[in-house]
C-alpha cells in the first residue's frame, strides 16, 4: 500500500488514465487518489465519468413497442397451437 | 410445429414511436452524488410485480390471457433493452417479438431460481446477441472496439480546463449520445451501466475476457463524455 501511494504521487496523467478502468472497478470513490489532488484535469475527467455512470443508472425503460408487436405475437402463437383433435369416428 | 415469427419491420402501426418522438420529452436528470453500485442492482431494477407469479403459473398451463398479462408487464422493459442495444426501432420491435415468442416456448423451463424479470431480460439479451451474430456485422466484434480509432481512446493530454459536464444532462441528450456510440461500446455500456450486469456476466454473454469488458466500458464512457461535451459546446455557440 505504501508503495502504491508513493507511485500515485509520481503518476503522470497518461499513467493515471491508463489505470482508470481498473481503478473504477476497484474503488468506488477515487476522490482521495493522490494524483487527483494535484491534477484538476484528471479530477474533472473522473467527475465526468462518474456522472455519466450515475446518470445511466437512472435511465428507465420508457419506450413502448407499437401495438403491431403484440398482434404479430398473437398471430404466431395461434399458428403454433395444435389443431383440435378430430371427433372420434362413430362405431 | 415451430413458431414462425412474422416480421413486422414494414408493418408498423400508425402511431408507432420513433426516436424523433422522444425529443419532445424533456426530463432533466438531477445531478446527485455518485452512488456505488448497489449489491442488489437486479432487485432494484427487477422488483417483484403484483400478480406476476399467478400469471406465470397460468401461462405455463397455456393460458393465453395470462401470457398477455406477462407481455403487458414486461414489454416496455424488454423493448427498451432491445432498442438501447440496437439503436434501431424496427430491429428492436422485431426482436421484442422474438423474445416474447421464445418466452412462450420456454416458459415451462423457468424454475424460479432467479426473478422472472431477470430471467426474461437475460433471454432478451441473448436474442439480441444471437441476432447480431447472425448478421455477421461487427457489432459483436470486440476487436473492433478494443482497438478503436485515435479519437475514441482516452486523451492523454487533456490540456487546459475545458467544459465539464454540468449537472444538467437531460435524459434525451444522454439517450442520443448512447445511440451514437460505436455498436461494440454501446453493447457493453448498456449492459453494464444501464442494465446493471456485472463484468463477469457480460464477458460470458459476449464471449470475451472480463478485462475486455472493463476496457470497453471505460472507452464507452470516454466516448460519451466527448459526445456530451461536444453537444454542450454547440449549445453554447448557438
Quick take:
The complex is a heterodimer of chains A (91) and B (238). Chain A has a domain at 2-57. Helices cover 66% and strands 0% of the residues of chain A.
Describe the protein in words:
The complex is a heterodimer of chains A (91) and B (238). Chain A has 91 residues and is mainly alpha-helical. Chain A has a domain at 2-57. Chain A is 66% helix and 0% strand. Chain A is built from five helices and no strands. Chain A has helices spanning 2-10, 13-26, 34-38, 40-57, 67-80. Chain B is mostly helical and 238 residues long. Chain B is built from eleven helices and no strands. Chain B is elongated, with a radius of gyration of 19 Å. At the A-B interface, helix 2, helix 4 and helix 5 of A face helix 4, helix 5, helix 8, helix 9 and helix 11 of B.
- Cα distance spanning the termini of chain B: 59 Å
| Count of individual helical segments of chain A | 5
Query: Judging from the principal axes of the Cα atoms, what is the shape of chain A?
Result: rod-shaped
Q: Estimate the mean pLDDT confidence of chain A.
A: 81
Secondary structure tally: strands of chain A: 0
Q: Cα distance, first to last residue of chain A?
A: 90 Å
Quickly give the structural class of chain A. Answer: mainly alpha
* Beta-strand percentage range of chain A: under 5%
Rg of chain B: 19 Å
Summarize the amount of helix of chain B as a percent range: 55-70%
Tally the helices of chain B.
11
Return the domain count of chain B: 2
CATH class of the largest domain in chain B: Mainly Alpha
pLDDT below 50 for ≥5 consecutive residues: which ranges of chain A? Answer: 1-6
Q: What's the β-strand tally of chain B?
A: 0
- Determine the CATH topology of the largest domain in chain B: Rna Polymerase Sigma Factor, Chain: A
Radius of gyration of chain A: 29 Å
The helix/strand order of chain A is HHHHH
Instruction: Note the beta-strand portion of chain B.
Output: under 5%
What is the typical, i.e. mean, pLDDT of chain B?
76
Question: Biggest protein-protein interface?
Answer: A-B, 49 and 71 residues
Amino acid at each position: 500500500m505504501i508503495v502504491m501511494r508513493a507511485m500515485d504521487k509520481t503518476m503522470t496523467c497518461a499513467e493515471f488514465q491508463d489505470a482508470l478502468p481498473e481503478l473504477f472497478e476497484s474503488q468506488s470513490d477515487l476522490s482521495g487518489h493522490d494524483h487527483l489532488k494535484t491534477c484538476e484535469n484528471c479530477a474533472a475527467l473522473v467527475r465526468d465519468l462518474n456522472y455519466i455512470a450515475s446518470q445511466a443508472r437512472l435511465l428507465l425503460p420508457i419506450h413502448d413497442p407499437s401495438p403491431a408487436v403484440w398482434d404479430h405475437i398473437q398471430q404466431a402463437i395461434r399458428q403454433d397451437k395444435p389443431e383440435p383433435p378430430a371427433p372420434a369416428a362413430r362405431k | 410445429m415451430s413458431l414462425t415469427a412474422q416480421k413486422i419491420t414494414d408493418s408498423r402501426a400508425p402511431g408507432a414511436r420513433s426516436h424523433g418522438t422522444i425529443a419532445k420529452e424533456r426530463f432533466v436528470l438531477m445531478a446527485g452524488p455518485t452512488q456505488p453500485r448497489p449489491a442488489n442492482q437486479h432487485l432494484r431494477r427487477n422488483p417483484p410485480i403484483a400478480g406476476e407469479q399467478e400469471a406465470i403459473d397460468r401461462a405455463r398451463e397455456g393460458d393465453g390471457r395470462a401470457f398477455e398479462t406477462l407481455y403487458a408487464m414486461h414489454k416496455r422493459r424488454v423493448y427498451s433493452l432491445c432498442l438501447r442495444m440496437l439503436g434501431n426501432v424496427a430491429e428492436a420491435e422485431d426482436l421484442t417479438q422474438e423474445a416474447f415468442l421464445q418466452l412462450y416456448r420456454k416458459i415451462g423451463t423457468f424454475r424460479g431460481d432467479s426473478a422472472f424479470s431477470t430471467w426474461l431480460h437475460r433471454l432478451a439479451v441473448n436474442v439480441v446477441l444471437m441476432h447480431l451474430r447472425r448478421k455477421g456485422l461487427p457489432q459483436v466484434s470486440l476487436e473492433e472496439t478494443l482497438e478503436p480509432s485515435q479519437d475514441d481512446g482516452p486523451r492523454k493530454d487533456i490540456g487546459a480546463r475545458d467544459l465539464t459536464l454540468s449537472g444538467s444532462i437531460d435524459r434525451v441528450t444522454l439517450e442520443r449520445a448512447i445511440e451514437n456510440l460505436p455498436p461494440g461500446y454501446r453493447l457493453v455500456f448498456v449492459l453494464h451501466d444501464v442494465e446493471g450486469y456485472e463484468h463477469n456476466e457480460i464477458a460470458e454473454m459476449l464471449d470475451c475476457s472480463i478485462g475486455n469488458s472493463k476496457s470497453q466500458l471505460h472507452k464507452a464512457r470516454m466516448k460519451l463524455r466527448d459526445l456530451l461535451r461536444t453537444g454542450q459546446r454547440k449549445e453554447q455557440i448557438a
